[in-house]
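Subject: Predicted fold for SEC-C motif-containing protein, 90 residues

User T.R. writes:
Posting the sequence so we have a shared reference for the thread.
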Amino acid sequence: MRSRYTAFAVGDRAHLARSWHPRTRPDQIDVDDGTSWRGLVIEHAAEDGDAAVVVFRASWRQHGVDGELHERSRFARRGGRWVYVDGDVG
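User M.O. replies:
I've generated the structure tokens; pasting them so everyone works from the same file.
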């Protein structure tokens, strides 16, 4: 999760693509250069075999406006690596 947050923060589309499950990865990964990611707080993480859930809050600033993303993300282990499957924003 932390590496994906950092990839969003620095605009590393290649890392985002590598760390996204091929079944759910979009054809085009958009990273808004006008967004400044300000911090990440992991609220909960749980692993069950080859599946994991991470609940986090990520704060951002975009065009002078502050905001926060709150998400429950699902991950799967593929080839010994964790990849992002999908998430529920709330």
